[in-house]
Amino acid sequence: MCPAFGATGRCLGDTVQQLDRATSWLLTKIERDWADAYVKRDPSFVQRLAADNFIFIGPDGNSVGKADYVKGMTGPTVFTTFDIGELKVRTVGDVAIVTGTATITAKTGDKDESGKYAFTDVFAKKGGEWKASSSQATPVKTPEAAK
Question: Torsions phi, psi of 12, nearest 5?
């Protein structure tokens, strides 16, 4: 069964799947590059990636806009590892939602921030490129921490 037909009557299913795979691959690469930017403390990556109205909701529930988020890349929290786990990419037109997990090793001063986090990133395609519109991270509780 063909999911969509073009003007010529040809099945567009393969084309749609190829576009979805290409988009998924590109957004996965963006996520991995974003993780690398944390370890490298590279605010220029996020400056380019984030839309002007970008909002980040951190693990503590507080939200910051783009300017503060970009500044935070070189702030007191130092990441030594930022490993992206399995990602799920969904698209609706020019909007993409990426969900996944990351395992990090990080410290803010003497406070250990290391652990596993679940996240949701929302992207919008503008001018042919994906821009991050929002990001949210939540700590994943281990069974021991839940007791």
Answer: -100, 5
Residue 7 located in a structural domain: no
Range of the domain at 34: 13-142
- Rounded Cα distance between 112 and 42, Å, is 21
What is the pLDDT confidence band of residue 146, given thresholds at 50, 70 and 90? low
Collapse the DSSP code of 53 into the 3-class scheme (helix H, G, I; strand E, B; otherwise coil) and give the result. strand
For position 109, which CATH number holds?
A: 3.10.450.50
What whole-number percentage of the chain has pLDDT above 90? 79
Whole-model pTM: value is: 0.84
**Residue 5 within any structural domain of the chain:** no
Tell me if 6 is assigned to some domain. no
Angle formed at CA 58 by CA 54 and CA 59, multiple of 5 degrees: 160
Beta strand residue intervals within the chain, DSSP E: 50-57, 63-65, 77-92, 95-108, 111-112, 115-126, 129-139
The CB density around residue 108, as the number of other CB atoms within 10 Å, is 11
DSSP structural state of residue 22: H
Q: How many domains are contained in the chain?
A: 1
